[in-house]
Design goal:
Enolase-like, domain 1; 22% strand; three-stranded antiparallel β-sheet; 41% helix; 185 residues; alpha+beta
Length: 185
């Protein structure tokens, strides 16, 4: 029997992996996959190709923003390299309807799912859970977001104060509801 390298075995797993979307979001009415679906689907392939998988995460902070950094490592025997992929997800401790543990757990699951997606080449760009806006306005492509403070914000506020229209500002900038309220106040 031919001995395959780690990269060749990983390629076989990536090619053979079928991780169905077993979850259903009744609010958004779409099917999606979560990290558990991916892990359940990949375990037999890991065994088949003598590969080990470790998934870890840690809390990090950059510029006052807390986030989960999830890392997925795949390896074979001790003489082979380790391949690793990381993904991040922000933590919102004030997320409506969640206590702090649920907020951290949700961010952990999200980051781990996307680290697994990266390692196993799972493309979620067509998944409804990546395109569903959950009734939030989508970003307008090509437009810079108007910040809620600073020189650009002050210039826009002065423009409104002097009789300028919000539509004119929105033609140039992406304006969130919060920024619009600040401009009009």
């Amino acid at each position: 029997m031919e001995t395959l390298t780690l990269q060749e075995r990983l390629l076989k797993v990536q090619t053979e992996l079928k991780a169905p979307k077993n979850q259903y979001n009744s609010f958004g009415k779409y099917k999606y996959r979560n990290q558990e679906d991916i892990l359940e689907a990949v375990k037999p392939l890991l065994a088949k190709y003598s590969l080990n998988l470790i998934v870890t995460d840690e809390v990090r902070e950059v510029a006052g923003l807390a986030f989960i950094n999830a890392t997925v490592k795949i390896f074979g025997d001790q003489n082979e390299p380790v391949i690793e992929v990381s993904a991040q997800a922000g933590i919102d401790p004030d997320r409506k309807g969640m206590d702090i543990a649920q907020s951290f757990g949700s961010s952990s699951s999200y980051a781990r799912k996307y680290a697994l997606n990266g390692l196993f080449l799972i493309d979620d760009t067509r998944d409804a859970d990546t395109t569903n806006t959950h009734d939030k306005p989508q970003a307008t492509a090509g437009k810079e977001a108007l910040p809620k403070s600073g020189a650009k914000f002050q210039k826009a506020k002065e423009f409104i104060k002097n009789g300028g229209s919000m539509d004119s500002i929105k033609a140039k900038y992406q304006v969130s509801n919060q920024v619009e309220q600040l401009l009009l106040s």
